Amino acid sequence: MKKEVVIFDFDGVIVDSLDFSFEINKSHSPKLTRKEWEDMHLGNFYDAFKKHKISTVDDFYKEYESKIHHVFPIESMDKVIQSLHKKYRLTIVSGSPARIIDKYLNRYGLRDYFEAIVGNEYHLNKVEKFNKIKDLCNVSFGDCLQITDTVCDVKEGHLTGIESIAVTWGIFAKDVFKGEKTFAVVDAPEEITGAVDKFFGKGY
Questions:
Q1: What is the pLDDT of residues 8-23, one digit of tens each?
Q2: What is the Cα gyration radius of the chain?
Q3: CA angle 170, 175, 181 (to 5 degrees)
Q4: Which of 50, 135, 164, 189 is deepest in the core (most CB within 10 A)?
Q5: CATH class of the domain whose range is 5-16+72-199
Q6: Using an 8 Å Cβ cutoff, are 5 and 92 in contact?
């Protein structure tokens, strides 16, 4: 029976929603720069969201939902997900609503690979969502590994003892993760499986 749990972030890891997400935020806060928006992901995004007085979360996700389903998954991520599913239990923890993610994954034939999806309906803080995954999967944090594109997620993972693999095709470039304690930083989806296997001691 598979025990180890791989926790995927959704936006920026499985799907490239970054450009249109920024444009939605900028439409509500015209003075917001791309750099300011990226820096919002260094800490808890929703705290920064309130600080910058951008549109309400509900308004943002109404527009987000109208766009996300027309964006294909990042190239090769479907193969990575299929490969990892053979050895690990896959889950998603995201700042986006689980219902939107569920619909997206069904649209692109990926939903059945994921055991659980915990989104912002449950909580805005990822630590609480990591705790939910632990309870749902009945595992310890030591049995979990997250794959993310943000510094904030890496930091919140450390608060629970969850290690991280950071990807560089999302919001942050490789150099941003240099000061963070990540298990690995990968530059292409094809590198994920090897890094996960190495973490769980299944690499060669």
A1: 999 999 999 999 988 9
A2: 16
A3: 90
A4: 164
A5: alpha beta
A6: no
